[in-house]
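dumping this here before i forget
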Amino acid sequence: MHGQNGGSADELVEEVDRAGDVVRVVTRAQMRAQRLRHRSVFIGVLNDDGQLLVHRRALTKDVWPGAWDVCVGGVAGVGENWQTAAERELSEELGIVGCEVGPLGLGAYEDAEVKLVASCFVARCNGPFTFADGEITEAHWVHTAELLQWLKGKEFLPDSLALLLPRLDNFRSVIA
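structure:
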């Protein structure tokens, strides 16, 4: 799960059902402790050459610290619409504003770590990027063929692999 590194334990988030409808508002600490389903956004970032931005998460992340990810994103705020949440996360995590951000659809995911409903997006941007919030420790542009090698050799977030990659045309075959 993606989330704000600096998200305080008393930050409010929406618990949702599998369809993404709000059940109630809880604290971030309660959501994590009880593994409650919540709303998130996943944004795959592609450059003009069709490469995907792959990054490593900070060791201070509350879930999957130090793991690699194929998208940026995080927990949607209470009452925040999907598009606004995606644009906010791009600004917070990569320092980019005003790039083209298109919807790819909703999906649900759950495992032993997280339960979420995510709205997936694709952003087209070549950078440059700044990692001011400290959630990302390194990033690389990766072609489709190279991603297979990356996936074999590193720990990746399973939620974004399951929900985002099948929605990115050039990368759909990587997980097939």
